[in-house]
Specification:
Layout (H helix, E strand, L loop, with lengths): L3 H5 L3 E4 L12 H8 L7 H7 L2 H20 L7 H10 L3 E5 L4 H11 L10 E2 L11 H10 L6 E5 L2 H9 L6 E2 L7 H6 L5
Parallel strand pairs: 1-2, 1-4, 2-3, 4-5
Helix pairs in contact: 4-6
């Protein structure tokens, strides 16, 4: 596993959004129940596998749920310090989320951090093949002209780690849950 200094030396950062940049607020079991889906199944993949006449009303309801959560988003502890440190170093930042791009921007605005991210580098589930596909990370790396040792994928869920590994990133890492140090751990020496 990479140590803090190795992580902070990376110049290209790809973040998950919900539960990584934000305090985790999505109760996926409750969302599944509200949509009438079985417990434990992937929501987006399940909707994608349904016939449109069944999936479309569920997608609309999912969008409503996600918009409300996006508007109420709270920053993860240490987020502002980390983003400021990365910006001061000239790092390139991106987001890959299973949420929609629209909801990602609502979240960024609610957090007051939209100025840290360029529109192209905020990718939702319909921008590319969704996580754990590496497509979004690979597009960002190509646009940034970044090499294998200079890009970091940060997330809090298995799909984030799989996405990083699938993108041939040996530098993917997981941020501990919000109840532990999370992003704060990264920022303790971020300005060095």
């Amino acid at each position: 596993m990479l140590n803090q200094k190795q992580i902070l030396n990376r110049r290209h950062w790809v973040f998950d959004m919900d539960g990584t940049l934000t305090v985790a607020a999505h109760n996926f079991d409750q969302i599944r129940e509200e949509l009438g889906l079985e417990p434990g199944i992937p929501i987006v993949k399940t909707l994608d596998s349904m016939p449109p006449e069944k999936a479309n009303p569920l997608r609309e309801r999912l969008q409503q749920i996600e918009i409300e959560l996006a508007k109420q988003a709270e920053p993860a502890e240490g987020l502002m310090a980390l983003l400021n440190a990365l910006q001061s170093k000239g790092c390139k930042l991106g987001i890959v989320t299973l949420n929609t791009k629209e909801n990602a921007w609502i979240t960024l605005e609610a957090l007051g951090i939209e100025e840290y991210f360029e529109e192209y580098f905020v990718m939702g589930r319909s921008c590319t093949e969704p996580k754990p596909s590496p497509e979004a990370v690979q597009k960002m790396m190509q646009e940034w002209d970044s090499d294998l040792d200079d890009t970091l994928v940060i997330g809090d869920f298995l799909y984030d780690l799989q996405m990083g590994r699938n993108a041939e990133r040996q530098r993917s890492t997981s941020i501990p849950p919000q109840s532990s140090n999370g992003l704060k751990w990264l920022t303790s020496n971020a300005h060095h």
